[in-house]
Amino acid sequence: MPTGATASAIAGTTRGGGPHAAGAHVLLVEDDDAVRSSVGANLAAHGYRVVEAATADAAIRRWDAERPDVILLDLGLPDADGATIIRRVRREATTPILVLSARGSEPDKVAALEAGADDYVTKPFGLAELRARVAALLRRTAGPAADQTGTLRHGPLRVDVVGRVATVGDRPLDLTPREYELLRTMLAQPGRLLTKARLLRAVWGTAYADEGHYLHVYVSRLRRKLAAADADGSIRDLIVAEPGVGYRIAERPAEDA
User: Residue 154 forms beta bridges with which residues?
Assistant: First the structure.
């Protein structure tokens, strides 16, 4: 476990905002100020955008508001067991969850994994190992459509899930977090029809499952940004609408399959 860090982090803070602010979005849930500060600073220095919470209540509020790409979760929180957060998230999403815990017994590990956690690291741990595990979880999040680096491809379009960067050719796409998540969610399942309700739950959460206008607005904005970056029109018809049902990504070109 990292030691010697200044205990300056407080619940609900955000790290990042510099040149790496576009990196993958990490929710770090840890009640030990020194550990949270050390881990958060290290991840931010390596390109991750980190938000922090010191309690289960703060973590759930952060989850609801920000929909991070990955959750790092201590089980021994002051107001609830971390397993309650795992179960809460699993009711709505498959967001990867990495448990960071001093509980090293086999029953504790099994219980967390059966509740829905994806990986488990016992304290004390090395920061390099932690970053490697986070990157591995993010690569798996991209699904079978991604290559070994965790990159989704469709013609000139590239979405680096680990770096949370989208480009068309050499041109970066300036996407909002919701636009990026919508694109990543659809691109991970090329050819598959995704209903409006499913996309809304995946990107905004269950509370928005009936808010179809959100989806229409964001898909329209995403199409405009893709078209502006697509000089030869090769991804002009990337997002296909199925009226009254949802959207799908056109099948990938043969060279990307």
Answer: 157
Sheet strands (E) in 16-81: 25-29, 49-53, 70-73
| Three-state SS at 119 | strand
d(CA 137, CA 161): 10
SS (H, E, C) 222-238: HHHHHHHHCCCCCCCCC
As a whole number of angstroms, the distance between CA 180 and CA 26 comes to 15
CA angle 194, 248, 66 (to 5 degrees): 60
247-257 pLDDT, tens digit per residue, is 988 876 655 55
Cβ atoms of residues 219 and 240 within 8 Å: no
Tens-place pLDDT, residues 132-154: 999 888 877 766 666 777 788 88
Q: At what angle do helices 212-229 and 177-187 cross, to 10 degrees?
A: 90
C-alpha dihedral sign at 253, 250, 152, 160? positive
In the block, tokens 């509370």 appear at: 207
Classified as helix, coil or strand, 54 is: coil
What strands lie across the sheet with 165-168, from one edge to the other? 151-154, 157-160, 165-168, 171-172
Distance between CA atoms of residues 120 and 98, nearest Å:
6
Q: Give the position of tokens 């990026």.
A: 180
> Which residues on adjacent β-strands are paired with residue 63?
none
Q: What is the C-alpha separation between 153 and 48, in angstroms, rounded?
A: 22
Q: Is the overall model pTM greater than 0.90, yes or no?
A: no
DSSP string, 117-162: -SEEEESS--HHHHHHHHHHHHHHHT-TTS-TTSEEEETTEEEETT
**Quick one: DSSP state of residue 149?**
T
**How far is C-alpha 124 from the geometric centre of its chain's CA atoms?**
25
Number of Cβ atoms within 10 Å of the Cβ of 129: 10
